[in-house]
Amino acid sequence: MGIRLGHKTPPEPLYERVGGMAFFTDLVEAFYVGVQARPVLRAMYPEDLAESKDHLALFLAQYFGGPATYNEVRGHPRLKMRHSPYVIDVEARDLWLSAMLEALDMVDPAPEIRGELAAYLDMAAHQLRNA
Ligand code: HEM
Q1: Atom 36, ligand 1: residue with shortest CA distance
Q2: Is the C-alpha dihedral spanning 109, 82, 54, 52 positive or negative?
Q3: Mind listing the pLDDT tens digit of every residue in the chain (131 residues)?
Q4: What are the residue boundaries of the structural domains of the chain, listed by start?
Q5: SS3 letters for 31-92?
Q6: Counting atoms of ligand 1 from 1, which one is nearest the CA of 85?
């Protein structure tokens, strides 16, 4: 423990509060169950979902304060650019978001953690609509 100059301990990153990487791999696994159940969404993804799962889990873990593995493997996220090949209209966005919120229900984190995740995912999904 280092010397604390201030009085307040900074909040632990969400990544630590959920117990690390396993939370994100579980969330993403649950999310893709929802993707498989939504044909419009499923059609946008490659047949083999292994890399898609990997990249999404690494991205979310990194975003919420975990290791920077996503950047090491994929480079800067540039999510707008990476989604530009796909037509993301209101329907696709809402399908994505509902699959993600269902996944959150399945992994069932503490309410304040769910709130933080849902707020970010909702905002990000709205930003990525491009049609
Ligand atoms: C709004 C609805 C969205 C749709 C329809 C959508 C769809 C897709 C598709 C088709 C891919 C390419 C397949 C793949 O590599 O996995 C992809 C990649 C990805 N998406 Fe989304 N996405 C959406 C929103 C989001 C949001 C909100 C985030 C982050 C919070 C996100 C994060 C990612 C990441 C990290 C990748 C992999 C990028 C890479 O490294 O290649 N997506 N998405």
Answers
A1: 56
A2: positive
A3: 556 666 777 789 999 999 999 999 999 999 999 999 999 999 999 999 999 999 999 999 999 999 999 999 999 999 999 999 999 999 999 999 999 999 999 999 999 999 999 999 999 999 999 99
A4: 17-128
A5: HHHHHHCCHHHHCCCCCCCHHHHHHHHHHHHHHCCCCCHHHHHHCCCCHHHHHCCCCCCHHH
A6: 10
User: What atom in ligand 1 is closest to the CA of residue 126?
Assistant: 1
Residue 36's nearest CA partner among 25, 23, 48 is 48
**Collapsing DSSP states into helix, strand and coil, what is residue 12?**
coil
Superfamily the domain 17-128 falls into: Globins (1.10.490.10)
Which residue owns the Cα nearest ligand 1 atom 32? 56
Single out the residue of 101, 104, 123, 102 nearest to residue 18, CA to CA.
104
What would the two tokens of residue 109 be? 């984190």
Model pTM? 0.93
